[in-house]
Design brief:
- The structure is a single chain.
- The protein is built from 2 helices and 10 strands; from the N terminus they run ααββββββββββ.
- It is globular.
- It is of the alpha+beta class.
- Helix 1 packs across helix 2.
Amino acid sequence: ALRDMVQNHLMQVFCLTAMEPPNSLDADSIRTEKVKVLQATHLADIANLENSAIRGQYSAGWMKGKRVPGYREEPGVDPNSTTPTYVAMKLEVDNWRWQGVPFYLRTGKRLPKKVSEIAIQFRDVPLLIFQSAAQQANPNVLTLRVYPNEGISLRFEGKMPGPNLRTRTVDMDF
């Protein structure tokens, strides 16, 4: 998971999400902006790695009612392998746009579902219009779905019709 997914796929998507608009759409301009992102990126808490990154390896269990082997029990895998099959990390980008905004990257093999998406969770605004309902409010999230069903969804809290001040989660899918 670490070698093939993180260094290739996840970092590409991360860079495209965090980079500044390139001067043009040619490969060199895009590459330049990706490099700027990578140079400004670090694990969120380098002093305490366990707070910023975790690795794991799937074990034997059950999926869809069938017994499945652990990674070390798979054909062709060394029974003493320490190769990670799951990685999660919290990154930060030190630039004016993303200062203080965490990026969470996760990938793994044999997860319950196979999806590729970018979920952007918006910060709370300083002044909440629905102050009394804000305690139960879910964060606003913009999700860019890459695989398997390409699209965009926006989740936010909206006031329910009527005189009472109650909110509900609204999902808009495109």
